[in-house]
Amino acid sequence: MKNFKKIAALALSAVMCLGLLTACGNKDDKQAGSGLETLETGKLILSTNSDFPPYCILADDGSFEGIDYELAAKIAEKLGLELVIDDMAFDAALTAVQNGQSDVAMGGISVNDERKAVMDFTDTYATGVQVVIVKEGSPVTMDNLGDYMIGTQLGTTGYLYASDTPENDGYGEDHVIGYEGGAMAVQALINGTVDAVIIDDLPAKEYVAANPNAGLTILEGTWVTEDYAIGVKKGNTAMLEALNQALKELKEDGTVQEIMDKYIKAD
Amino acid sequence: MDWAQYYAQLSAMAKAGEDLGFFENFFRLFYQAFVEGERWRLYVKGFAATLELTVLALCIGIVLGVLVAVVRTAHDQQRRGHKNPVLSLFNGLCKVYTTVIRGTPMMVQLLIWSFVIFSFSRNRVLIGAFGIGVNSGAYVAEIVRGGLMSVDVGQSEASRSLGLGYFDTMRFIVIPQAFKNILPALGNEFITLFKDTSLVSAIGGAELIYYARAIGSKTYEYMFPLYGAALMYLIFCIILTWLQGKLERRLRQSDKR
Predict the structure, then answer these.
(1) Is B217's Cβ below 8 Å from some Cβ in A?
(2) Residue A218 and residue A206: Cα distance in Å, rounded?
(3) Minimal Cα–Cα distance from A261 to chain B, Å?
(4) What is the pLDDT of residues B85-133, one digit of tens each?
(5) Is the ipTM of this complex over 0.90?
(6) A178–B218: do the CB atoms touch at under 8 Å?
(7) Are B111 and B202 in contact (CB under 8 A)?
(8) Record: contact A118-B220, CB cut-off 8 A
(9) If you ran DSSP here, which 8-state letter would residue A196 be given?
């Protein structure tokens, strides 16, 4: 019995050592086929949050679809890389690219000065307009939002601006709740836990359409207008240039417009 | 020089892409995470909510747990051939409760409480406390049941034959002995409960982790907010463990071993 225990312990430690070795093995070769350095050879790792229709959608069969993912796939094709999508919470997706856990971050990421300070952005590929969803007949308007409870997605610009202090045109931390996902914030609105949800206009339309019996409506006007771009690690100029070049080509040959038209239905 | 000025200077340098020294960068990130915009107030507020959650959940958990444990023990310790049908019914209910609660993740339970059952309520901290309390109750019940069962039946038989009623027997004979036995396990459960309150952030309950993440998402720098939150949890856990040790020593005083 004693011997058996010894052998078992030895076998276990051997297995653990093997695990460590394989874990280290992946990092050796970084040079990609196209000469572009990525985290893993031949792969473009995209960190994102799939709670943002129609840009990022987790399909029923577990695959990824949406404007951003199709665009990313086309870009990866141009760069000769295989696209790997890493789905996580939105705030985590932004941090992942800064920390070098992913090559690029996408997912309706609005460009602002604070974000520019911690990561680099490509040229913009779409315009994001943030709107306010409320219940029909609700007394909430664009001007009195600060008197009510507002649901947002944690880490989005909607959350950042709304939770800022009133001196900075925000409504204060006490009036804003940051949920893990946009769908959760909308669910909270339907339940009556919050009075309004600030979110980008296309997802807003999707959410309102997806809950026809909940009596949701989008307030007239826009809350803020921003540009969407792809985020890369600060200082990774090679990647930035390659992405911008690919984006430019895709814009010129109409691929970007094609993808947009596929997902955005005219009103 | 003024700290705020120093911070503004350093962050301007960082924005311009200059490399800061280790201590300069440490100061910048620390200031950004805790001092800038009086952010430390958010941590304090969050920690207060965490404590509120813990105390409320603890009360719910103890009440539920003791009730369930008493019913389960009373049922299991009936004399052979004497089955009280009312007790059997309650015993069944308690069994279902512990099975369901212990068989599903707390995260799922919290989401269900918040988004399905109490979907009308705005007080997410209260919902969170309720969810965690109900969850903890199931574990406390098993711990207390184990303690009550560990006291030999002969003790309560002797007590009953000396003329004490059921409640007096429980109060003077069984519970004092059981309590000493289960104290380490119970203390563990309470410390776990305190740490599990962090899950309430998933339903938007504004407690410590919620604010730490919120600050991280604003500054794009998670190290200091998360370390700060972890440190607050750790310090409080150390205090709890110390108190538990003191109580255990106090209860051991009359031991003649």
Answers:
(1) yes
(2) 11
(3) 32
(4) 999 999 999 999 999 999 999 999 999 998 889 888 888 889 999 999 9
(5) no
(6) no
(7) yes
(8) yes
(9) E
Residue B202's φ and ψ, nearest 5 degrees, are -65, -25
pLDDT band at B22 (very low <50, low <70, confident <90, very high): confident
What's chain A's length in residues?
Answer: 267
Alpha-carbon distance of B86 to B70, in angstroms, equals 14
A38-77 residue pLDDT tens = 999 999 999 999 888 899 988 888 889 999 999 999 999 9
Looking at every residue in chain A, the average pLDDT score rounds to 87
Per residue in A171-218, pLDDT (tens digit) is 998 899 999 888 889 999 998 889 999 999 999 998 998 888 888 999
Measured from the Cβ of residue A15, the count of other Cβ atoms closer than 10 Å reads: 10
- For B213-223, what is each residue's pLDDT tens digit? 888 888 888 88
B225 Cα to chain A: minimum distance (Å)? 14
Q: What is the C-alpha separation between A256 and B24, in angstroms, rounded?
A: 44
- Sequence-ordered alpha helix ranges (H) in chain B: 3-15, 22-30, 40-76, 85-103, 106-112, 124-150, 153-161, 166-168, 175-196, 208-219, 223-252
pTM as predicted: 0.76
Q: What chain B residue is nearest to A190 in terms of C-alpha separation?
A: B119
Q: How far does B121 lie from chain A, in Å, by closest CA?
A: 6
A49: left (phi over 0), alpha (psi -120 to 50) or beta: beta
Q: How far is CA B1 from CA A35, B5, B28, B171, in A?
A: 48, 7, 15, 65
Question: Cβ A191–B220 below 8 Å, yes or no?
Answer: no
Chain B residue with CA closest to A178: the answer is B204
CB contacts of B121 in chain A (<8 Å) are 193
Say if the Cβ atoms of B121 and A193 lie within 8 Å: yes
CA–CA dist B211, B44 (Å, integer): 10
Are B115 and A154 within 8 A, CB to CB?
A: no
**Euclidean distance between CA atoms B224 and A125, whole angstroms:** 33
Strand, coil or helix: what is B135?
helix
B150 near B178, Cβ under 8 Å? yes
Cα separation, A147 vs A189, in Å, equals: 15
> Among all residues of chain A, which has the CA nearest to that of B219?
A114
Q: Which of the 8 DSSP states describes residue A198?
A: E
Tell me, yes or no, if B48 comes closer than 8 A to chain A by beta carbon.
Answer: no
* CB-CB under 8 Å, B220 with A95: yes
